[in-house]
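User: Hey, my collaborator sent me this sequence without any context and asked if I could get a structure. I don't really work with proteins. Can you help?
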Amino acid sequence: MNLLLYKNARNGAGEHLQNVIEPLVPEKKVEIYTTIDSLYQRLRKPTFDVGVAVLLATTRKELLEIHSMKDLFRDIRIILILPDTEGDTVSMGFKLFPRFVSYADGDFKDVAAVLEKMLRNGYLSNGSNRNQTKHRMTAPYRDKLNLEESREYFNTETQGPMLGLLQLQVTAQ
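Assistant: No problem. I've predicted the 3D structure and written it out in structure-token form, which is a compact way to encode the shape of the chain:
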């Protein structure tokens, strides 16, 4: 598995981030993209070989462009570095469902620590850990509930999908 690193070519923070990340990741496992267009082109290709993406948005405009591609990050674990701590910026960042959020004015030691833990957990190894969480969460409920009960709990017209999911988990236990 590979790590995608998006950093703006015009920013010194990107170079610093790259210098922090590269010693942690096995050789030839980092794909570096310096423009939104190049990142977009890569994400349009199959991403089965991508375990983690580290995205450095140094401006709100950049974050907005990354956000516009959020569906392409669906199966990729994201470490997101935001340009500032303003509420709108943080809110938009969390819509990407990152595993970790940091800020561009930092020294990226926190990013390195999180990435190191992800590496220890095997998210860049050849064995795919990508779907283990999904199976671990659904397997206990598969045998205990029938289809009709599932439909009742996932009635999105009246309750919404998350409320139904919570009820499903409580009832199944």
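In plain terms: The chain has two domains: 2-120, 132-172. You can pass these tokens on to your collaborator as they are.
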